[in-house]
Specification:
Elements (H helix, E strand, L loop, with lengths): L2 H23 L6 H13 L5 E3 L56 E4 L5 H16 L18 E5 L2 E3 L4 E3 L15 H17 L14 E7 L5 E4 L6 H6 L3 E7 L2 E6 L11 E4 L4 E4 L7 E7 L14 E7 L6
Antiparallel strand pairs: 1-2, 2-11, 3-6, 4-5, 6-13, 7-12, 8-11, 8-13, 9-10, 9-12
Bound molecules: manganese (II) ion.
């Protein structure tokens, strides 16, 4: 290729990249009044729904459903339609068509339904937008196979390299940018969520006494966004052995999260939980090696008070090496 052709191609790719980012970033201004009203409604929407696996004593926790939120009534759903993963390397996931209660949740897996307040969600979005446009911000990763991921990603604290499947300080699979640290507010929200989750099921902590998140991977999914079946397995050996928890925030459109305790074989049924904006999902201890996928994003399902380009933002917090 001539130098000129290479320059033109590079410029075209840069332009496409900026366009994609612009799609994510150009949103209307926050409507302070609508946000305050949403916060007020959230404060009165008690009790908070939390869902965990039945505990070992045989006591079956019933999911508490928040009546004011229609999205919460089918807290755990499965569908009969086959869904294809984003990662071409993995198999198709087929789910059963039965509504389940808590039985499919694994010990050490807790869903805090609608936990984050609207203001907290908007703050996370605003921060993600600011960081996302800065050096080391959102990019579209490419698998080792050459296939593009069906999401945009930004890593904070440490960079997760999709090609080597290891953490590093600078993103050697893209532009060598150093990754920014986690905003303090984000870590505080993650710790607050974890405290609530461990009160529901202490098994989320594994063998860790506490957890201070030092890594956050932010994924942005558009309506066709997907993430194939995988295990979050690249933190330190100690973190994996001790079952140090993963804390996951969902913001924006409703999405389907498939999960199972092993890689599904053939067309094996996989339970799916529908995650809505403000949900916090925690998995640790015996559930740390949960096999999971993001199988579907429902378009036009984000609340009107949330100022964010259509899609779903997912923040996952981890501690690379357990501090205690
Ligand atoms: Mn994951």
């Amino acid at each position: 290729m001539t130098t000129k052709a290479a320059r033109i191609l590079a410029k075209k790719q840069q332009h496409e990249h900026e366009l994609e980012l612009d799609l994510f970033l150009s949103t209307a201004e926050v409507d302070a009044q609508a946000l305050a009203a949403a916060d007020d409604a959230h404060a009165h929407a008690l009790p908070l729904a939390s869902i965990a696996a039945p505990d070992s004593l045989g006591f079956q926790r019933q999911p508490q459903v928040n009546a004011s939120s229609p999205a919460a009534t089918n807290a755990i759903v499965t569908t009969s339609s086959p869904v294809t993963n984003g990662d071409p390397a993995t198999a198709t996931v087929t789910a059963t068509n039965t509504l389940t209660q808590t039985g499919d949740f694994l010990p050490g897996m807790v869903l805090l339904r609608n936990f984050l307040t609207p203001s907290e969600q908007q703050q996370l979005v605003n921060d993600a937008q600011e960081l996302g446009l800065s050096h080391g911000g959102f990019y579209k990763p490419t698998y080792a196979s050459g296939a593009k991921c069906r999401l945009h990603q930004m890593c904070l604290g440490k960079h997760w390299n999709v090609v080597t499947e290891q953490y590093e300080q600078a993103r050697s699979n893209f532009d060598s940018a150093q990754v920014p640290p986690l905003p303090t507010l984000w870590s505080e929200l993650a710790v607050k969520s974890l405290d609530a989750a461990r009160a529901v099921d202490p098994r989320v902590m594994g063998d860790c006494k506490s957890m201070k998140p030092d890594i956050c991977v932010v994924n942005y999914y558009k309506k066709a966004g997907r993430n194939g079946m995988h295990v979050d397995k690249d933190e330190s050996e100690e973190a994996m052995t001790m079952g140090s928890p993963v804390i996951s925030f969902s913001i924006g459109c409703v999405a389907e999260f498939a999960f199972i305790d092993h890689y599904p074989v053939g067309h094996e049924a996989v339970p799916i939980v529908r995650l809505v904006t403000g949900d916090v999902l925690v998995f640790g201890g015996p559930a740390r090696k949960l096999v999971h996928a993001l199988t579907r994003v429902y378009p036009k399902t984000q609340p009107s008070w949330l100022r964010m380009r259509a899609g779903r933002l997912n923040f996952t917090f981890r501690e690379y090496k357990p501090s205690e």
